[in-house]
Structure formats: C-alpha cells, structure tokens
Amino acid sequence: MKIGISKKPILTIASLLIVMLTLNFFGGRRTNDPQFLENSEFPPREIEAYSEGINSILYDENGSISYTLRADNQIHYRDGDIRIDNPLIRLFQDEIPRWNIIANEGLVLPILTETSLEPKKQKLTLSGNVEILGLDKFGNRTFIFTELLEIDPINETLKTDRRVNYESNNIHHSSVGMFANLNEDEIRFEKNVRGLYEKISN
Question: Which of 74, 99, 158, 200 is most buried, most CB within 10 Å of its CB?
Fold first, then answer.
C-alpha cells in the first residue's frame, strides 16, 4: 500500500531545515570563533591560536617572583603579539604583591634585543577601565584610574597619555598623562594637573 505525500510540504520542510542549519552554523561561529572577538581598541589581525584560563608566573634573574598575569582568555597573532581579555597583573616587590592592575583587555608585545631575534622581555598595553591598586608596607592604599596604560613589568614602570585620576589617603589628583616608576615610588603627572590635599587630623 502506498500513501501519496504532496511534494510541496516536503520542499517547505527541507527549505526550513536548510535555513535553520545555516543560521545555527553562522550564529555559532560568530559567537565562538575568536575571529569575531575583535570589537576592541586593538586592530584585527590574523589569528594563530586561542586559549582560555591564563595563569602565568614570571620570575626575575634571582628566581624571585617578578609578576603574575591572569586573564580569561588569550589570542595569539601570527606576528607574535598576544591579546588578553580581563587581565589581572600583580607586581611583586621583595616577594610581596604591592600592585594589582586590572583592565578590560590588553596586548602583550614582545621586545627584541639588538643582538638576538629572541624576545627578552614583554611590554603590556592595557585598555578599558584600567584600575591600579597599590598597597605599601604601612598599609596605605593608592588608587589610579585611566583608560589606556603601557606597562614595563620587569622595570615596573607605567605610562599613559590619557586622563588619570589618582587617590590616596589624603591626596586626590587628576591630570592628562602620567609616568610612574614603582620601584622608586615615583609618580610624575604631565599636564592639566589638578589636586586636592586633605589634612589628616590626629
């Protein structure tokens, strides 16, 4: 016994399945493929690798912890640069974490020496809601806020040409541009400096 089925509903169902598969394929690719994660301040480039859950510890020449780097994920580009999302950088002094730095994203740039093609150190550029929290040996806190920050984690220097807000126990500063040498406890504000000093009463 044969049952006749109209060809029109079959074509309609087949067309619907094709549309659903197409949307599922491109929709999934758009959300999961790192190629589509390039909606950032950094320009898109050719991607070599992608990984999640980054936790790195870097040591100085004496074997002490220099700094640690955590991030939700990282994208390796073919030119050697690395893009990281939601980074947390912790700078150590005398094996104690003195500075914590967070941001929305960052770019890790290898620096080549003049005598070798091998990268000897790295420079980090952070962007988007960059927050710097410092804690000295006396428990005094320092907060610094900006939108773009260049970091040399080995020499512990920070630099930006963007607006900066600085807060400590009794000082509030704002400026455009800043250079900080954390090893020397030196912070230099560049221009349009405005500040408020609050006297601490005993």
Answer: 158
**CB of 160 closer than 8 Å to CB of 144:** no
Range of the domain at 52: 46-197
- Going by the DSSP 8-state scheme, the letter that residue 9 receives in this structure is H
SS3 for 26?
Answer: helix
Contact 87, 102 (CB under 8 A): yes
Q: Is residue 55 part of a domain?
A: yes
CB 58 within 8 A of CB 69: yes
3-state SS, 93-136, equals ECCEEEEEEECCEEEEEEEECCCCCCEEEEEEEEEEEEEEEEEC
Give dist(CA 165, CA 150) in Å, integer: 16
pLDDT tens across 130-141, in order?
Answer: 999 998 878 889
Buried b (16+ CB within 10 A) or exposed e, 33-50: eeeebeeeeeeeeebeee
Asked if residue 39 belongs to a domain, the reply is no
Amino acid identity of residue 10, one-letter, is I
Q: What is the domain count for the chain?
A: 1
